[in-house]
Amino acid sequence: MPRPLTLQGDQLRERFHALDAFLAAHVDLWRPKPFTELTLLWEAQYPELATWLRARTLADAEAVHNSLLDLDAPTPFPALARQAHALSAVGPLPTTDVPAARHRLNVDVPGRKWQQIEAFAAALPFADSTSHWLDWCAGKGHLGRRLLRDGQRLTCLEYDPALVASGAQLSSHHALPAHHRLQDVMADDLRLPASTTPVALHACGDLHVQLMHRATQAGCQHLAFAPCCYNRTQGAYRQLCSEPSALSLTLEDLGLPLEATVTAGARVRRQRDQSMARRLAFDLLQREQRGTDNYLPCPSLPAAWLDKPFADYCRDLAALQNVPIGHGVDFDNLEARGWQRLAQVRNLELLRGLFRKPLELWLVVDRALYLQEREYTAQVGTFCPETLTPRNLMIIAERT
Questions:
Q1: Residue 95 Cα distances to 98, 365, 369, angstroms
Q2: Which residues of the chain are under the pLDDT cut of 50?
């Protein structure tokens, strides 16, 4: 099988329309959420697939979460898996050798994050021709400091005063020409010099969209960013490019790409599973007690709630949600039903999982086309393997 290539030029538009048609044609398969709906509409259309998925265990679902192409499931799963895989295939960006990092520059950076920074730096084709880096939503400025080469300057924009102070201290310690600026990048008073090269590693939602708006308005020669958290946006989602589309996305839809996870440790997985099983059990309880077949959103709960006996957990959450609980609830049976439902939910979600990457690539290509329409050449590719981060897509743009 030939190695997938990065997307640029007319390839972006062609892939956008192919993804758009695929996602629109199967929206009834990926939009319903098994976590909030007891029965999914597509189950009547594909009863064999639904029965097969519901009969699988939690361990079965966990084993194939990120390898759906290999799942030998009833129709139409295999055909959809192949199509989704082909449409979401995109190759790695070309890499260049980067100078070794300064001594102890990676102190205070978690290992996986530092690997992502190294991979991001290696994928930048204009590193030598840049005179002034601008680290967008910089945090402590770890990315910007790694990109700095002799003769270059760095400006870090960050909203959190503590991170600005800590980043400035680190840059001063390494004697680097970096200016750490307290700045809300969404504010109207932001001014972006055309001489800067904006970069962002995992800027969320509106933050990376604002980066594109500001950089193109300022006429920056280069920009590069890896998007993240597409659902962190104010109001309804608006397509950025001017290409016709059959899709109308909600904020819940935008959360689908984020459901891909890198394997967590055993303790984290146990806590996650226990939390979800309890929430699903409580959902069954609140439907029965309220006499309604509707999901009731629950707030985030402190981790300490998982230490409560299950019956106390349910009673306390019911009080928090103003759900009256009658006498005679069999909490042991309810807890078992919660775990059973968790296994079903995880396996039913495998069908939605086929559309995670196609939807994410649709969103990323939408952004690349926005830049292309503003006289930039844009390229979309991966900057690291998915095992390092599921958010491994990157856009590189250069003013033509």
A1: 9, 21, 23
A2: none
